[in-house]
Amino acid sequence: MVKANETPEEKRLRRLLKKEAKERKRKERMGWDNDYLHYTNTDNPFGDGNLLATFVWNKKLDKEGLAGVSHNELEIRNRQKQEENRRELEKVKKRRLERELERQKREEEMALMQRSKEAAQFQEWERQEDQFHLEQARLRSRIRIQDGRAKPIDLLAKYISAEEEVDAVEMHEPYTYLNGLTIKDLEDLIEDIKVYKELERGKNLDYWNDITVIVEDELHKLRKLERQSAYEVAVGRREGIHQSVAKDVAAIFKGKTSAQLEALQLQIETKIIGKPEGVDIGYWESLLSQLKAHMARARLRDRHQENLRRKLEVLKAQQGVAAAVAEQAEREKETQSDTESSTSSPSEEENIQD
C-alpha cells in the first residue's frame, strides 16, 4: 500500500536509499573504514549539499530556455521525451526487423533461383546424356545393318528415323519386320523398345506403343501355341476361336482403317456389356483381345501411307522447282544468243561491202 501510494519523489528516494544500503554492504565486505561508509548531503568530504539529490543539468536547461520551468513540468517533459524515444526505438526495431525479413526473403529467393538453375542444368545434363546414348544406340544399329546382322530394333529404329528424311523411303510397314521372330527375339525386342522410349523422352511414343502392342500380341500367340495341349490341337481351338472360323475372323479385320476398327470395337463392347441370350461371350471377348493388335497395325499402316504421300509431294515440289529453274536458265541462254547475233550482224555487212 505504501509503494502504491507513494509519489515519484518518494519512490526515487526509497530506491536511492536502497541503492546506498547495497553499496554500503559492498564496501563493508571490501573492508572500508566507517569514515567513508556514511556519506550524506550534510556529511561528506566533497562539501556537496546535494550529493543525494537528482542531478539537474541547469546549463542545458538555460540553453533550451527552460530555466524557470518547475520540476513537475520538467518531469512531464522528460517522460514525454522518454516516450518519444521509446516510440522511435520501436520504429528502429521494426525497421531492423523488416530489413532482416527482406534479407531473409532475398536469401530464400536466391537459394530458390539457385536450386532452379541447378535443376535446369541437371535436366540439361540428363538430356545430353540421353541424347548421347541414343546416338550411340543408333550408331550401333547402323553398324549392325551394314554388317548384315541387324536386329529387329535396328530396323524399327531405322524406319522411324527415315520419316524425318525426305530421301530415305521405307516401302514396307514397320510391323513386317516382326515376321518369323521367335519368343526370345520378341522378348529382347520389348526390352530394346523400352530403352528407346526412355532415351527419346516421349518422342515417337505412339509409334513405339503400337509396336509394343503388336509384339506382345505375337508373343502371346507363340506362348499359347507352346502351352497347347494335344487335345486342344486335336479339336483345333485357339484363343477361344475355332480354326474353322479363324479365317472369317481375319477377314473381319482385313483391309479396315483404324477408324473402322474403333467403330467395330465399340460395337463389340456394346454387345458384350448387353449380354443378350444365345451370344457366345467368349468368342466376342477373344475377338476383342485380337482387335487391339489389329488396331495398332492399322494405325501404323495409315501412318506409313501418310508418310509416303507426304514424301511424294515433297519430291514433286522439288522436281517442279528444278524444272522451273532449268527452264529459266534455258530462256536466259536463248536471250543471250539472240543478243550476240544482233551485235555481230553490222560487221558482217561491212565485210560484204569491202
Observed structural traits:
354 residues, mainly alpha, two-stranded antiparallel sheet, 75% helix, elongated, disordered C terminus, coiled coil, Splicing factor cactin central domain-containing protein, Cactin_central
Number of helices: 11
Order of strands across the widest beta sheet? 1-2
Largest sheet: 2 strands, antiparallel
Share of residues in strands: under 5%
Keywords: Coiled coil
Region (Disordered): 323-354
Pfam families: Cactin_mid
Coiled coil: 71-114
Describe this structure in words.
Strand 1 (237-238) and strand 2 form a beta hairpin. The termini are far apart. The protein has helices at 2-5, 8-29, 58-63, 71-146, 152-162, 183-200, 205-227, 230-235, 243-253, 258-274, 281-353; strands at residues 237-238, 241-242. The protein is built from 11 helices and 2 strands. The chain has 354 residues and is mainly alpha-helical. The chain has a two-stranded antiparallel ribbon with strand order 1-2.
Brief write-up:
By secondary structure, the protein is mainly α. The protein has helices at residues 2-5, 8-29, 58-63, 71-146, 152-162, 183-200, 205-227, 230-235, 243-253, 258-274, 281-353, and strands spanning 237-238, 241-242.
